[in-house]
Amino acid sequence: MAIPSLVPQCTLTRTVVVPFVLLLISFTLLFSFHPPFKATLSKFAPFITSHATHPPYTAAVVYLVRLSHADELLESLASVNAFLPLRDPWPIILFHTGDFDDTPVQDDFLASLRKKIGGPSNNSIMDFSDRVEFVKLDWVLPEGIPHTKEELDPVSPSSWPGYHHMCAFYSTKIFFNPRLRDVTYYLRMDTDSLFLEPLCYDPFEVMHLHQRSYGYLGIGNDAPQVTKGLWNFIRDYAGSHPEVESHLNASTTWKWPSNFTNGEVDWDDVPIHGYYNNFEIVKLEEFRKPEVEEWFYHLVQYPEGFYKWRWGDAPLRWVTTQMFFDMERDTERLCGIHYYHPYNYIEQCECVPLHP
Q: Burial level of 23, CB count in 10 A (0-12/13-18/19+)?
């Protein structure tokens, strides 16, 4: 009896089984593959955003902090985490003058922050505390300024020199701090600043899309007691810089004291407008232009302005934007931000979402 040939059956088996095995191996390799950088990805977490595309700008939230105000700083940071909707998990930079210099102090503060907030940041897989950076500032009194209050007799002696250093820092020095060299925008908060409700937009996105250089919530006045000599300083600078004087005189939002005093009042008795700049958003490159830097240099060359007369960063920010910006085109009042600071009174305006 003839034995049936097995060749057709074996051929059929190889035809079906071999491709199936190869397909199975391919799927196994595909789903078991781990890219070599996956294990170290967490090291690059500060640079991973919630969007696939590279952001068209960089940003940071900045504070000037003291360890003695740590409790209110925790409250402020919690409000940022809860209510500030940012496109990306930008860094939170805590400038300090030595209070947070030691690693154990930083670790204790971050542990308290994690305990208070917990979980990831808004719109991010990162923990909020992973965004916090500590940056030390080395503050020294300028040459020519006495080192004792008795010799200098400064305005606001009870807060000298710390508050006066702060005014000088926010008025001029912050724009050239190395940590902010590659930052497009910063948003300033004070340790006693709070967001009270969710914002209906990302304020950095507003600044970018509207092409603004300065964003603010409101405008007030600084009292004559802390602006002595400032009006005359501004007048002298404008007089020696015709382009600045021309720009101010053409502005509909700038008024010299002589415009409303008829020369009958001492300019030192006239208050100067100032932003409530314990909250502000600044486009840094606009404050680094040569003509603006020249104005800052002029201020720094007269250190008595900050350290004796306590000229504040609020009126100087107002003066700087008036001197060098088109106030209608370059600045924006940021509406709908429910914000608290003990020394501010801000009239609310309607919040309009960027993308209704």
A: exposed
